[in-house]
Amino acid sequence: RAALEVTIALHLEQIYFIPLAEAVHRPQPVATATQRLRMLQAAIINQAEFVIDARELKRSGPSYTIDTVQELKQEQPQQSLCVLIGVDAFLQFLSWRQPLQILELAHLVVMLRPGGVIPNDSNIAKFLAARLCTNYQQLQQCDCGRIILQSVTQLDISSSAIRATIAAGGNARFLLPDAVLDIIY
Question: How confident is the model at residue 22 (pLDDT cuts 50, 70, 90)?
Fold first, then answer.
């Protein structure tokens, strides 16, 4: 849902969904790469502007955003790129591998839940202030290096809660697309 809202708000042509192979900043995924890829295919099958890109699953070692953004920019040098991340990930962005180089190649779209904020006294707030743009038109004025905060509908649904519901024998219907639920079951 968040990707759809960002696509509409920022007039994006496509959103690439890139499942990671090996997580760097969080525990490893529970589902295998093959299972996650199948669920992703089922989830976005009818959304033409959503594209699955499995490059990180084919790459060995940890999945670093900088590697993927560099590859995408080499393949599409004239295309302006945006990296979509949640606010929780953004608060850790400066600890990522080569965060400044990511911004030399792409914009960041930070998806905020209603009421979500960036702490004013943090290093990330200072980092944001120097790069913040407040609307789509400002984002279009340059190819990279800007950060936009994009509000998205809050859906209090998490993969861990879905796993817990299913493990307890509960019904997870309407928490994710039926086609994905069929794969899980």
Answer: confident
Looking at the DSSP bridge assignments, the partners of residue 86 are: 111
Four-residue CA torsion sign, 118, 120, 126, 129: positive
Element (H, E) at 83: strand 82-86
**Contact present, 50 and 14 (Cβ < 8 Å):** yes
Q: At 106, is the pLDDT very low, low, confident or very high (cuts 50, 70, 90)?
A: very high
In sequence order, what DSSP letters do the residues of 121-171 get, joined into one string?
TSHHHHHHHTTEE-SHHHHHTSSSS-EEEEE-------HHHHHHHHHTT--
Torsion angle defined by CA atoms of residues 108, 114, 120 and 123, in that order, rounded to the nearest 10 degrees: -30
Q: Which of these, 81, 74, 86, lies nearest to 146 by C-alpha position?
A: 81
Q: How far apart are CA 76 and CA 82, in angstroms?
A: 13
**pTM confidence score:** 0.85
Token pair in block for residue 173: 């219907």
Task: Quote the CA–CA distance of 145 and 29 in Å, as a whole number.
Answer: 30
